[in-house]
Amino acid sequence: MLPPGGGLLWLGLVLGSVCASVGSAAPGNSATDALNVLLIIVDDLRPSLGCYGDKLIRSPNMDQLASHSLLFQNAFAQQAVCAPSRVSLLTGRRPDTTRLYDFNSYWRAHSGNFSTIPQYFKENGYVTMSVGKVFHPGVSSNHSDDSPYSWSVPPYHPSSEKYENTKTCRGPDGELHANLLCPVDVADVPEGTLPDKQSTEQAIRLLGKMKTSASPFFLAVGYHKPHIPFRYPKEFQKLYPLENITLAPDPQVPASLPPVAYNPWMDIRRREDVQALNLSVPYGLIPADFQRKIRQSYFACVSYLDTQVGHLLSALDDLQLASSTIVALTSDHGWALGEHGEWAKYSNFDVTTRVPLVFYVPGRTAPLPAAGDKLFPYLDPFDSISESVEPGRQAGDLVELLSLFPTLAGLAGLRVPPRCPIPSFHVELCREGRNLLKHFQVRDSEEDPYIHGTV
Fold first, then answer.
1. What is the pLDDT of residue 77?
2. What Cα–Cα distance (Å) separates residue 253 from each residue in 109, 333, 348?
3. Has 426 been annotated as catalytic?
4. Which residues are CB-neighbours of 118 under 8 A, at least 6 positions away?
5. What angle do CA 29, 30, 34 make, to 5 degrees?
6. Maximum distance among all alpha carbons in the chain?
7. 103: β partners
8. In terms of C-beta density within 10 A (0-12 exposed, 13-18 middle, 19 or more buried), how is residue 137 classed?
9. pTM assigned to the model
10. Which of 69, 29, 32 is nearest to 52 (CA)?
């Protein structure tokens, strides 16, 4: 983990090297007119957002992004587990190919030396940077976030993330606990900050540095919330009074549910406040009042996350980068909030596998902003009089996160990697997902370079 200053020093050294060699980038990319990429990956975010039709959730900044974007209504992850999903979407290969279904292997060592999205952009002259949780940490990314293959500079991890699973949650007894529900006074937590706040600050610093660079950039920002524990600034609870929180519409475990389809949400059961409920395993129901508190805290985490996305996108505007930067926002998988008596992830229900997927492409999903105009002014979720944002373009087709690799490459003007043969363990660069470029508005399908290689 690098301190902010250390990361910027590394970046300065890399920029000099990249500028000296940018002429050798692969065909299909010009450093002078290439679009930058900002990829935002959220942990455990289901499509409970205003732009996806949820009337309860206050997510004005992500809704504003969606209003200038193409939004996919039916996007799904390959697996509802962090590490397999992230490795899959970042390599463009299915878990059956990466041979990762848990957290315990590194695909380059156990499956094949598959290229990743940031690696491909790096090899095409981009400066690639990682902030927060992009790859899953640990064995599945070689304890290095796949460095040095994927990143031009060492990945940044916020210093305060080491407190996420420690006893920093003040309980009703006044003592500190390792709880599931963990609204905090930020001034009282270790270091006086939270991981996602630090990630936003670092990402904005990197954007500022890249503004003066002749090299295009690929910046991936991974946000922790709404991953458990629900550790977030306590004021966000006010957006969701408990009396306004309903239970899931189908909160009972189906009588004929096959055991193999059920996830007993053991990660939640290990939290001290849930242990105190003394629930039976595997099918014991959480009391209704505690279910409402879980849903309240999840929604509060989403609104807290929205403020971080809002600050990041506002900085993109302030630095005059919105007209030259593709923004893609998605999640590694969804999260169950009591549907079918299920909580958390690890199952194959719709609520755990469906994810938001949004692409902003300057000049394609929205007109280029005029000089001085802002596409992404920060919107305060606490502002009760803020105007609702009209949704942008939407696609209803069934799509999957495997498509992220070819779609980002094509939108950036790079050659779209070829489809993988079967088997493809020996092929370093190919993709198993469909290219989604056909969904983006085109001027002339015969002349527009974006439309080539659309399957």
1. 98
2. 40, 21, 14
3. no
4. 90, 128, 130, 150, 151, 218, 220
5. 85
6. 68
7. none
8. middle
9. 0.93
10. 69
Catalytic residue among 82, 182, 301, 420: 82
Contacts of 131 (CB under 8 A, 6+ apart): 155, 156, 199, 202, 203, 206, 219, 220, 221, 222
Distance CA 394, CA 392 (A): 6
Which tens digits make up the pLDDT trace of 14-67?
A: 665 555 444 444 444 445 589 999 999 999 999 999 999 999 999 999 999 999
Question: For residues 424 and 422, what is the distance between their CA atoms, to the nearest angstrom?
Answer: 5
Give the pLDDT of residue 2: 61
* E strand spans, 11-66: 36-42
- Please report, for residues 40, 321, 440, the alpha-carbon distance to residue 366 in angstroms, rounded to integers and kept in the order given: 19, 14, 11
What is the C-alpha separation between 202 and 45, in angstroms, rounded? 22
| H helical segments located in 132-259 | 195-211
Residue 384's pLDDT is: 73
Q: Which two tokens stand for residue 72?
A: 């996919």
Distance CA 288, CA 290 (A): 5
The active-site residue out of 51, 68, 136, 177 is: 136
User: Which tokens go with 375?
Assistant: 């596409």
- Reading the block at residue 421, the tokens are 């043969």
Q: For residue 141, what pLDDT is reported?
A: 97
Sites in the chain below the pLDDT cut of 50: 20-30, 443-452
Known active-site residue 136:
yes
Instruction: Give the model confidence (pLDDT) of 97-134 as tens digits.
Output: 999 999 999 999 999 999 999 999 999 999 999 999 99
Q: Which residue has the tokens 């899931």?
A: 248
Give every CB contact of residue 155 below 8 A, 6+ residues apart in sequence. 2, 129, 130, 131, 134, 144, 145, 147
421, burial (CB in 10 Å: exposed 0-12, middle 13-18, buried 19+): exposed
The secondary element (H helix, E strand) that includes residue 16 is: helix 4-21
Tokens for 219, please give them: 């910046």
pLDDT at 390: 75
